Amino acid sequence: MALVAGAQPAFAQAEQTSASGAVDTASQPQSNAEVADTSAGEQGGGIGDIVVTAQRREENLQTVPLAITAIAGDTLKNRGVVDMSRLNEFVPGFSFGQTGSDVRPAMRGVRTANNGVTGDPTIGYFIDGIYQSRTSQASLGFADVATLEVQRGPQGTLYGRNTFGGNIVVTTNAPTHELDYGSTLTVGNYDKVRFEGYVNVPLSENVAVRLVGVTDYADGWVKNSYDPQADLFDENKQYVRGSVKWDVGDFSATLRADYAKQGGNGASAFGYKQIGSYIDPATCQILFNSPNIVYLNERAGNRDGVPDCRTTAAGPLGPVGTGVDLGIPIDNPGDEFTVSNDYKPFRNLYQASTSLTASYDFGSVSLKSITGYVHYRGKRTTDSDFSSSSIAIDLARTHTDTFSQEVQLLSSKSQRFEYVLGGYFLNDTLVNGFINQQLPRVIRSSALAAPITGSQNNGTYQYERVKVFSRAAYGQATFHVTDAWSITGGVRYTHEKKEYLNATAFWYLPATLPNGVNPLTQVTINDPTPPLSIFPAEPSNCDDDGVTAATILNATGQQVASTYCPLEFSQVTWKAGTELQVTDSNLLYASASTGFRSGGFNAGLAAAQSAPTFGPEKVTAFELGAKNRFFGNTVQLNLSAFYNKYRDLQESRQIIVGGTTLQTTFNAARARSYGIEAEAIWEPTPELTIGANLSLLNAKYSKFENVPLPFGGSILVNDAAATAPTIVNGVTIAGIGQRRVIAPGYDCQPLTGTGGAGQPALSFVCDLSGNNIPHSPRYSGSAYASYRIDLGGDSALTPFVAASFAGHHDEQSFNDRLAREEPWLKLDATLTYEVNKQLSLIAFVDNITNESIQTLVSYGGTPLQASYEPPRMYGLRLRFQR
């Protein structure tokens, strides 16, 4: 088949594709003719088309001059993909990271690092056109999907807000005017039972409804050897969605309402498995990136009195032979899927949302409205000492209430001059709460015959509320200069305002405020909210740059509550591009575009003093691409080459505040990334499908200076040859008889103003320029193949195998040894038996070789914590559809 039937001008080609088409048809039980567009069926098959909405209108994927991977809903079902955690198997250059319930996707050198309410996602996530403002919302997954699009690169014109690195766009199936119903039942190891069903009923000639329901249960695949009831990554999810579609002439409206709930123990937080600490073996001190790694749990308070290291050189911890207690042995070291924690955590996430999409076609133009409201609540706890000792637990909560309204005016696709004009309105109220609950100490260690008991320390409490007001106006137009050549230009103006309240308290300390309110009275692990009366009024002179916050301190001088001056950001982003439809089946395009992510607040004491805020980060992106069909529509090859330049990246740095140094977010780094991405499908016969995608990426910081290491940046050792103090840039870094050792592999200098009398402890900052950007493997991709064996009648057997892989990549900007993922290869396979057109049975095995693949390494002090992809998963899926 030709890509588009006939030889009409590009701007006049009629779209006849179906949203049930697929880029990856290999794992689908139905035949190619059933997933292809109508013209494909008439001409004898070939690769099916798929409809995407990346340019805010329905278009054939192969005619859109953007780097997009689109996946059909049937492909997601057959592969068992119910959230974004496995998108790296489909999307070139996509990396998935996760800490607890917060997802951290990455593409083209852009990653989601700050997932707090004071920051914003860097990759936009949309469901049916409605923006999801928190990364933890993505962990709820999706159901009854028509298509899933991953739009790579900044989408700063048509989507705008927080699409700095790209978009993930989920479009669910809308009601149709035909009776339809179906279900998928999945059973597997870890006692997995998932049921997803839908029913579509036309109520009249103009009205249809669709109902979707999901239940999902499974035991945890991270086992707890201390308490089997506290296994991690279990599942307990329920989801229901109802939608109504009304079509009257040229008017169409779809109303959706859904509710999702996810419980169980959850996925811990900030990495669930401790993987070791850096120790200088001579002095037994923590030294970042030291060649010597010890497998000890050094979390605060986890000390069993047993020496774990004996000094071979004199130092601050003692003379030669001094025994040093560094912590307790890590339980089950090297076993990525076993922990030993005494606390049973919980995860309570739920979301209720409604949306209304309405449009009217006037002929030459159409008017579209997208209205959405999202009510999200998330609460989860974790064993913060990562051990069978009883020391502390953490609670984190996230609340989101998001209202958005978008209006679009779209020209007809049959015109030589096409355009999209739009306005966007968003109000978002975000709440973040964090509690560290200290417990009476019970130290349990494999080095002890009996537990050690002791007292408890002070806990901490923090409450943050952010209100975001975002307004935007945008337009993009394409002019078809000739039947084959077109040019495109777009611009967006965005204005955002953010308001911030912060409350911080330390338990067991007097905290009576001037107004007599004590916010600590009812502080327990049961989710406290401070009364708004404790917050001071907004400063009256907020236009004065020298005033940033009004703060109340308690009797001991600690910050309890602050109200900050609002932040406002205005930005113009744009796009310019050109495309050439060489033939009906071959498209070339080039574009330049920009994107930005607004700034925010630094929480706590730092925000009230010298580092209250950080500014926007920006990107300019250039892309060349080609989309092709060859050999009678049996080969598809899509290519893109890109260069991204990043400015004012929001990264962490260290500042001096009073008598201490604090970690904050600054606009510090410049960076760049470039690479090539390819996606290919070959269908030499209707039965055989072979496909692959590949990403080659080079992403580095071009300028990233004055960065503190997360811990152990330097140590002091005794050196009799040092007869005078060592002074660098006017700062004494070592006294007589001492020598300062810097973390190996880093170029660091003392932070001016530290180390002197009355100054904070000596701190060092380092130059990370030239380091790799995290989650940016040099190469990554996947390959798959399937062959449909006709068994007669409507029966068939289809084996399918897929391999996904990635090269070495770093998981933190420091590029240290432990935060590094080695190359990996993962194999998946399915065997589909089509009993008839309605019934299919699919046997599956994911991660056949049981690879341990890191998704993230976190620094929560020492030791480091890591998260991993699931181990081998296998089972059966039974699919029925009318």
Key phrases:
globular, 882 residues, mainly beta, five-stranded mixed β-sheet, disordered N terminus, 22-stranded antiparallel beta barrel, single chain
Explain what this protein looks like in three dimensions.
With 882 residues, the protein is mainly beta. It has a 22-stranded antiparallel β-barrel. The protein is globular and about 85 Å long. 51% of the residues are buried.
Q: How much helical structure, as a percent, in the residues?
A: under 10%
Global geometry: globular
Computed structural class: mainly beta
| Count of strand segments | 57
Topology:
Layout: H1 32-35, H2 38-42, E1 51-52, E2 59-60, E3 68-72, H3 73-79, E4 94-99, E5 102-107, E6 110-111, E7 124-127, E8 130-131, E9 145-152, E10 166-172, E11 180-188, E12 192-202, E13 207-218, E14 223-224, E15 235-248, E16 251-262, E17 273-280, E18 285-286, E19 293-294, E20 296-297, E21 309-310, E22 323-324, E23 328-329, E24 338-339, E25 347-361, E26 365-383, E27 390-411, E28 417-443, E29 452-454, E30 460-480, E31 485-506, E32 549-553, E33 559-564, E34 567-583, E35 586-597, E36 600-601, H4 605-608, E37 613-614, E38 617-630, E39 635-657, E40 660-682, E41 688-703, E42 714-718, E43 726-728, E44 731-734, E45 738-742, E46 748-750, E47 764-766, E48 779-787, E49 789-792, E50 795-806, E51 809-810, E52 820-821, E53 824-834, E54 839-846, E55 854-858, E56 864-868, E57 873-881
Parallel strand pairs: 7-10, 14-24
Antiparallel strand pairs: 1-2, 3-9, 4-5, 5-6, 7-8, 9-10, 11-12, 11-57, 12-13, 13-15, 15-16, 16-25, 17-18, 17-19, 17-56, 20-23, 21-22, 25-26, 26-27, 27-28, 28-29, 28-30, 30-31, 31-33, 31-34, 32-33, 34-35, 35-38, 36-37, 38-39, 39-40, 40-41, 41-48, 42-45, 43-44, 46-47, 48-50, 49-50, 50-53, 51-52, ...
